[in-house]
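Minutes, project check-in
Item: structure for the 80-residue chain
Input as provided by the requester:
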Amino acid sequence: MNLYQMFQGLIPKSSQVIAIVQAEFGDGTTACLTLDSQPIRVKGVGGRGYGAKVFVVIDPVLGSYISGSAPDLPVYNVTI
């Protein structure tokens, strides 16, 4: 029994999504729209224009922030 690994299991993990930039604000945040049409306001601006795709990290501890530009590839949603 490793207590450290058990403790690590209690901490929520971060996830990464692709979002589309809607607007950048002067306070250092960006309004984005995820691919499933959920609005999200994240930390970070990078001079990306309206409609640019970005990777957004959603971390329960650090909050949501832009981690970089996402490739402009077609996206398909498939429900199984």
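Outcome recorded: The radius of gyration is 15 Å.
No further action items on this chain.
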